[in-house]
Specification:
Elements: E1 6-12, E2 20-26, E3 34-43, H1 46-52, E4 69-77, E5 89-92, H2 105-110, E6 124-128, E7 132-134, H3 141-144, H4 147-160, E8 168-172, H5 176-187, E9 191-196, H6 199-207, E10 212-215, H7 222-229, E11 235-240, H8 246-252, E12 253-261, H9 274-278, E13 283-286, H10 292-305, E14 311-316, H11 320-329, E15 335-339
């Protein structure tokens, strides 16, 4: 296969969505131990918006290529690569080098795709063969592109929370992480309570399997409603995507419950009443996506159950800025995808 000398890349020249423009860049050559992946599809996460707002990695050098989640085909391999063959469909892992166990500080601060490492909103990316995984065969490229951060974060949260049949899980919102958590929790035999500011989105969440829907706009004291929906007991696991609502999440928990803090879409600060932590003996843990081993375990479960990710909308690479604007609007239900291989 003859590769072109140059490729398209969606590049941010400033910390603003309006700065996103298509540029030409050289196609990278895979070095020893690397694979070259022709990116077919990518998906956006709230992290990508935060980086563009300089609220995350504020010292990031410009210009840079955003986004960490993609799916593509192996089109070239470097020397000593045995993990993949030409034509394999793969997804690079978000934290490069994190294969199992716990990551190092260097991995978490210097080895993440989409900043500070170059992202996947370009035609080709070269990554170490050890830092990609084979993807579920029943999923489209767009569906696979939703997995590396959103799905794995949801999977890790439930695994760290030791989800069991009969547990109750609270998910906040109807973005990618929340909907994956809903789907994975139902596979585990758990009951799910979903929060949203939209009755229409709550109806769609119930169609996916949510047992209870609570509109936090019309019910601002939603922690009371959560307790009522659980007969006063509270939930076993909270998938905390909002961040600033941590106090209400604490008030929603059952004795010995677990909160996985995965995001900060409602703000970067939260007030925590210590009595709500100590008395009921709850656990609060930050979730940093997950390792390659956990990604592979999740993919096996997805393939076994035929799970299908929820995609809200798809944009061509040339309209990548519009995809970011749509995500920022908060109108999405599920994942916002960018078709990199299309025109």
């Amino acid at each position: 296969m003859t590769l072109p000398a140059t490729m398209r890349a969606l590049e941010a020249s400033a910390f603003a969505i309006d700065s996103l423009k298509l540029v030409e860049r050289p196609v990278p050559a895979p070095r020893r131990g690397e694979i070259l992946v022709r990116i077919r599809a990518a998906s956006l996460n709230y992290r990508d918006l935060a980086i563009l707002a300089q609220a995350y990695l504020p010292t990031l050098p410009l210009p840079y290529v955003p986004a960490s989640d993609g799916c593509g085909e192996v089109v070239a391999v470097g020397d000593e690569v045995t993990r993949f063959r030409l034509g394999d469909r793969v997804a690079p892992i978000y934290t490069q080098g994190w294969h199992d166990g716990k990551p190092t500080i260097e991995m978490r601060t210097k080895r993440t795709l989409g900043a500070p490492l170059s992202g996947v909103l370009q035609d080709y990316v070269a990554v170490p063969a050890e830092d990609a995984v084979i993807v579920p065969g029943h999923l489209t490229d767009a569906e696979v592109a939703t997995l590396p951060i959103a799905a794995l974060t949801a999977w890790s949260t439930l695994e760290e929370g030791d989800v069991k049949p009969g547990d109750t899980v609270l998910v906040q919102g109807t973005g990618g992480v929340a909907l994956f958590a809903l789907q994975f929790a139902k596979l585990a035999g758990a009951r799910v309570i979903a929060l949203s500011s939209s009755d229409e989105k709550l109806a769609r969440a119930k169609a996916l399997g949510a047992d209870v829907g609570i509109n936090y706009r019309t019910t601002p004291d939603w922690q009371v409603a959560v307790k009522e929906a659980t007969g006063g007991r509270g939930v076993d696991i909270v998938v905390e995507t909002a961040g600033a609502t941590l106090d209400k999440s604490l008030a929603s928990l059952a004795f010995g419950g677990f909160i996985g803090v995965v995001g900060f879409v409602a703000g970067y600060e939260a007030k925590i009443p210590l009595r709500a932590v100590l008395g009921p003996m709850i656990r609060i843990q930050g979730i940093a996506v997950g390792s390659r081993a956990r990604f592979e375990a999740m993919n096996r479960a997805i393939a076994l159950h035929g799970l299908k990710p929820v995609i809200d909308s798809t944009f061509p690479l040339a309209r990548g800025a519009d995809a970011f604007r749509h995500l920022a609007s908060g109108q999405h239900f599920g994942k916002v995808v960018i078709d990199v291989a299309g025109a």
